[in-house]
């Protein structure tokens, strides 16, 4: 019998479900984990935030006085760790420096610890005080398997400006020197029209590899609005933590989590009144595509997983986005192939394997039919 790995999220509560503990529960469960939670803060309405989000949902933000006492937070965490033994732990928003200090003693034994402090929110508001930033740097960063920060967070933590790719590498190197094994920097906007992320890893194990091994990788996306949505950063950190708990190494966890969140950001639709069933099915469909595109390209596979007929799935996707499901699968495959071509050094054959094609020739034929150019020509431009 399959056992869902227990994943602990330590963060603030957002009763809208768009971020915080509630969103983490949804993400962990969707990826097959068993969600455990410890609440650090209670969210309250914030007059500085927009009254309505797209889709008719209001946004909440952390108001002053919303933090729970260190003792209450620690009692939650220690009880969970001592009884359930989570496979991976995410530490998100903590707004009290004493809580940060005490948390370190509870999570220090976890080998899969993701620190995502969220110094600034998606709108650029600072969420924690300078004393908390100092405490996170001192107590939690040295214990992190993965430290996740926006570039703006890293600028605040390090007291530097990040304006180029080289600046991102230097910032990640300095954060790693503080003790984090891996660093994921997100939200680099120094290239117009796209966002840049950087995964920075440990140095090579062997001295003879030091001159040739690359310990960092850049990722870019042109979907700047999507990746800046409220709650996306928290969902990504929860997804990475879940994949780590399932046994992925850090680069694989980041890639698999990115694929999952990418489907939510790029393809998922808000739910207008009167169209909830179709929207729910559509979002479930694209989530399945994100999870299975490397092994399944057949519409019947996805219809069967949704317990509907391929014809009905076609009606759903046509109603929501005006495309047949086969084209949605093709669009997703094309986007992933283009991402691999532009951001990795994988060979064409390796990309064909990762996107589920039985041969390089079939992959090249698909790519040219969809993009109008060959994979090699696309990569060279």
Textual characterization of the structure:
The chain is of the alpha/beta class and 381 residues long. Helices cover 48% and strands 13% of the residues. It has helices at residues 20-30, 70-83, 97-107, 130-140, 151-158, 165-177, 224-227, 232-245, 250-267, 276-292, 299-305, 310-321, 325-343, 348-354, 360-371, 375-380, and strands at residues 6-13, 34-42, 88-91, 113-115, 146-150, 182-188, 195-200, 216-221. It has an eight-stranded mixed β-sheet with strand order 2-1-3-4-5-6-7-8, sandwiched between helices. Helix 1 (20-30) links the parallel strand 1 (6-13) and strand 2 (34-42). The longest helix is centred in the last third of the chain and has 19 residues, at 325-343. The termini are far apart. Mean pLDDT is 84; it is low at 47-65 and 207-212.
